[in-house]
Design brief:
The complex is a heterodimer of chains A (115) and B (115). Helices cover 0% and strands 49% of the residues of chain A. The model of chain A has no long low-confidence stretch (mean pLDDT 93). With 115 residues, chain A is mostly beta strands. Chain A has strands at residues 5-7, 10-13, 19-24, 31-37, 44-50, 53-57, 65-68, 75-79, 88-95, 105-106, 110-114. The N and C termini of chain A lie far apart (33 Å). With 115 residues, chain B is mostly beta strands. Helix content of chain B is 0%, strand content 58%. Chain B contains no helices and 11 strands. Chain B has strands at 4-7, 10-14, 19-25, 30-38, 44-51, 56-59, 62-67, 72-77, 86-94, 103-105, 109-114. In chain B, a hairpin with an 8-residue loop joins strand 9 and strand 10. The radius of gyration of chain B is 14 Å and the shape is globular. Classes of the chains: A mainly beta (115), B mainly beta (115). The A-B interface holds A 4, 6, 33, 35, 40-45, 48, 50, 55-56, 91, 93, 98, 100-109, 111 and B 4, 31-32, 34, 36, 41-46, 49, 51-53, 89, 91, 93, 98-108.
């Protein structure tokens, strides 16, 4: 399978714990995005990487959130001191280049439940 | 700020019917528009991408149209099947969204096709 891969698919954690998610984009894609989706809503943008550089962050990305993309390959999203409000689906997407026919491809997501 | 609205929020139709899903957006300066399908608890599958210079795109039983001036897109599904049951999401990429050109999503239309 050469699509976007996310791990784990599901994560249940206690409030206050730290969690880390991983995303492996399509291999030739240099642009990588993280989105968060809550129940009944569309995904909302969190952050964007071009190669290894994190170029944009949304206001949704509080200080407890950090993302990395070492060597411009896979990316990790860490949430520290999780809160119940962090419960959501975290989606990763990648694109190859930036043009009008740029199509975003998404992974299967990581469903986070904070109890 | 770009807002994307999808109406209706939910739709139930008998198998075999043709149907139209609607998407409207407030900022017509878009780069492109993408329609996605999302099955329960899963990630997003790209269905169609329409560049800002295009009026429509077709893939199999799906046809998406774009009217930038009125800020509208429609997704037409012909001869619906129970396997089409899913949430359909519309997303736009703005010209003015910085280097990220992230997607802004609607909340989706939940489609149920009854056998």
């Amino acid at each position: 399978d050469t699509g976007v891969s996310q791990d784990p698919r599901h994560k249940i954690t206690k409030r206050g714990q730290n969690v880390t998610f991983r995303c492996d984009p399509i291999s030739e894609h240099n642009r990588l995005y993280w989105y968060r989706q809550t129940l009944g809503q569309g995904p909302e943008f969190l952050t964007y990487f071009q190669n290894e550089a994190q170029l944009e962050k949304s206001r949704l990305l509080s200080d407890r959130f950090s993302a990395e993309r070492p060597k411009g390959s896979f990316s990790t999203l860490e949430i520290q001191r999780t809160e119940q409000g962090d419960s959501a689906m975290y989606l990763c997407a990648s694109t190859k280049t930036e043009s009008m026919n740029t199509e975003a491809f998404f992974g299967q997501g990581t469903r986070l439940t904070v109890v | 700020k770009q807002e994307v609205t999808q109406i209706p929020a939910a739709l139930s139709v008998p198998e075999g019917e043709n149907l139209v899903l609607n998407c409207s957006f407030t900022d017509s300066a878009i780069y492109n528009l993408q329609w996605f399908r999302q099955d329960p608890g899963k990630g997003l599958t790209s269905l169609l991408l329409i560049q800002s210079s295009q009026r429509e795109q077709t893939s199999g039983r799906l046809n998406a149209s774009l009217d930038k001036s009125s800020g509208r897109s429609t997704l037409y599904i012909a001869a619906s099947q129970p396997g089409d049951s899913a949430t359909y999401l519309c997303a736009v990429r703005l010209l003015s969204s910085g280097s990220a050109r992230q997607l802004t999503f609607g909340s989706g239309t939940q489609l149920t096709v009854l056998p």
